Amino acid sequence: MITEEQTNQAVAEILSLHKKEKKNLIPLLQEVQTKLGYLSKKTMQDIADFLEMPEVEVWGVATFYNQFRFVPLGKYHTMVCMGTACHLAGGRLILEALERELDIKVGETAEDGNFSLERVACIGCCMLAPVIVIRDKIHPKMTPFKVEEALIPYKQETQKEKS
Amino acid sequence: MFNVTFEEINNRAKSEWEALQKGSYILVGTATCGRAAGAMDVVDAFNNELTRQGLAVPIIQVGCTGLCYADPLVVISKAGSLRVVYANVTPEIVPRLVEGYVAGDDPCLELALGTLEGCNGEAVYIPELPRFEHELRLILRRCGCTDPENISHYIANDGYSGLGKALKMSPEEIVGELKKSGLRGRGGAGFPTHRKWELCRKARSTPKCVICNADEGDPGAFMDRVVLESDPHQVIEGMIIAGYVVGAEQGYIYVRAEYPLAIERVQIALKRAGELGFLGDNILGSGFGFHIEIAAGAGAFVSGEETALIAAVEGKMSTPRPRPPYPVELGLWDKPTLLNNVKTFAYVPLIVKRGADWFASNGTEGSKGTAVFTLAGKVANSGLAEVPMGTTLRELIYDIGGGIAKEKQFKAVQIGGPSGGCLPETLLDIPIDYDSLREAGSMMGSGGMIVMDEDNCMVDAARFFLDFSTRESCGKCTMCRLGTLQMLNILEDITAGRGKIEDIDLLLALAEDVKIGSLCGLGKTAPNPVLTTLRYFRDEYDAHVLEKRCPARVCPELTAYYILPDKCDRACEHCVLTCPTEAIKGGKGEVKIIDQEKCSKCGTCLEVCPPEYNAVVKLSPVSLLPSPNLSERRARK
Fold first, then answer.
1. Looking at the domain assignment, is residue A103 inside a domain?
2. What is the dihedral of CA B425, B431, B436, B438, to 10 degrees?
3. Residue in chain B lying closest to A69 (CA)
4. CA A108 to chain CA mean position, Å
5. Which of B315, B264, B261, B269 lies closest to B292, judged by CA?
6. Measured between CB atoms, which of A67, A68, A85 is closest to B377?
7. Could you tell me the pTM of the whole model?
8. Which residue in A122, A140, A145 is closest to B220 by CB distance?
9. Shortest Cα distance from A114 to chain B (angstroms)?
10. Cα Rg for chain B, rounded, in angstroms?
11. What is the value of ipTM here, to two decimals?
């Protein structure tokens, strides 16, 4: 868990690398999110102050794009591809299986912070449809049953950490 | 001065390339598609095995040959011998390949897909695969045989020579060549490229700007990603020529954030191009300066529209604005801006180098050159293909794509994503070009092609695309924001069995309104998937509405899973043990029965039922289910 001080420092460092130009808004939001995992209200206020623009404008841009998140991600962030090829190969069933197995709804992060689930439009791996991505690892040709199997190592990992 | 310099660079690159060809080397396709299939594990396995055997053979990470179904793809090249291609390589077979062909002389033919030819001035091909007889590779010609991170590979294979030639021509001459070539924008709309360039060149205001649109948002299309990951320099070269023609000094490549590897490889390519003087203040001593920056998109389908993309680069919400004025007059920061697709830029160096007549000799009357398509969905060999314009859909799907996977029946092909349409079997013989596709109610679009088979429901497909458009509508135009939502609600009713016959007329009326009432391409084309499925697959809509039946047995509300008592092997408990909702009753030695109340319709039982029994079936309409009493009586028997 990073402290508030560390967060402020990280944001200040990112801001110091950019010019005070409005066109840097999206790159700033992206870099802060990459560093901290999500955009908190405070970090968006900092960016607004830095670029000397209204907070509401930063909020507008941040909520417009699919990439930005406003809650922290789980340790094992899981993305389920909902592109055309994945949909036709049963993507909906995969999404439902993940919701069931992780006991969270799409867009949510589990209370213990281990898993989060997100739907994405297309990751460009259509020949491997349907695909899911667990913490940057792509799992190809999923079925509801294979979802259960794919999650086992990650679930074991979280169990181990608990004990 | 500049001649000597380019020649020097060229000579150095050529000798580096020739030196490589004199020895052995290994190519591994590590574009995103290859990586997803496990290419990085294969690279590691080769590294380990080569070290273990004490062999110093370079492993070169290349892009994608378009044979995505065969990933991870490996080529072992030996001087004076065959370059052998291996498909679906796993780390387990790597020692065998190293032992056999890298160290020894056994090409492991039982594992080989074919041999790699070309890639020394001509396009790469595999003569053993019949699909290459139908393909014509122009912008994919280096993909899969040169290292995208090594600029020498690009230069040694004709790279940057188009730029060298262009800088000796006048901008007017280059526009003239483009006009003669008949090149049309590859982003989908097909606007003549030379006209855009000429308009931007003539615009008076400065500083001008060039933008490459790599916001490939169509879910199911990935050719721009492949081009950028496999051969990024050709796009950069095209952009520099564009800058020279229109008089711009700054360029941007707008890439989706979902393509991190493409961004990384373009970044490296830009750096290398700068080091050798292809980018910078004084390109190849010509006095012309040009710089390129990457703008990473943040995920919005509407950003593919040019005015929305410009807003995104400016750091604003990506919403379109009315045109005219067009970006060639009033674009980025209200300055003239030339905006083209990745593939459009990629064609430019070739046209300049080889001449407009050569380019125009391929294709049809109205659509010149080639088209790059991604084939995905239920096709046997999914991947990428580049074919001359005018090739038929049937050739593309059957001769190149290998037909439908698992011997299923073809049902439809969807071209152009959420903006395109679904075409039935009867239209498979129409030629692929801008005008024929538009006439059929579809469009060239980005070039994403998704094949559907008998197991796909066309109403569900239309619902899927509309759901996508509704989510991605930026909200500026009422008809696009609310009209598509109304259409989606109707389609959801139909797929859930609540449809009424008058809904279909309402859908048609709404579709027209959304088309007329929307400012940009997203809204104007969003009804296309609905309109084409209604036009060609009306019977499926009728079955959903009138009989509450989903012919493909896809829509969950209209479908039920059922275990055939006669086929169920009573000793097997696969379905009972794996059912996530514990909906299957029946102990050892009994016939299994699905509790329809508990069933979540996930399909796991169908998946796990051993093929020798095949006892689980899907029924639609749900009324086909035998009454509970009947099936229980059968079970007791």
1. yes
2. 60
3. B298
4. 10
5. B269
6. A85
7. 0.93
8. A122
9. 22
10. 27
11. 0.92
